[in-house]
Amino acid sequence: MPQLDTSTWFLTIMSMIMTLFILFQLKISNYLYPMNPEPVEMKVQKHDTPWEMKWTKIYLPLSLPLR
């Protein structure tokens, strides 16, 4: 039974990685980035709810003191 020849694996893997890197670089270089992006100001809407002015505290059943 013949042995598997792994002597060329390193060269094959390295060439594949280099090729993928070059292809990704070419793909990314074709993308047009905006020259000077500026933030857009958004208007904040105020919602009046009845519980905004009240102070509430929620007690967990396990955190209540023992009787």
UniProtKB/TrEMBL annotation:
GO biological process terms held by the UniProt record: proton motive force-driven ATP synthesis
MF annotations from Gene Ontology: proton transmembrane transporter activity
Key word Mitochondrion present: yes
GO cellular component: a single term: mitochondrial membrane
Cited InterPro entries: ATP8_mammal (IPR039017), ATP8_metazoa (IPR001421)
Name by which UniProt lists this protein: ATP synthase complex subunit 8
Main location: mitochondrion
Membrane-related topology note: Single-pass membrane protein
Keyword Chloroplast: no
Cited Pfam families: ATP-synt_8 (PF00895)
Top-level taxonomic group: Eukaryota
Family: Belongs to the ATPase protein 8 family.
Subcellular location: Mitochondrion membrane
Keywords for this protein: Acetylation, ATP synthesis, CF(0), Hydrogen ion transport, Ion transport, Membrane, Mitochondrion, Transmembrane, Transmembrane helix, Transport
Transmembrane segments: 6-26
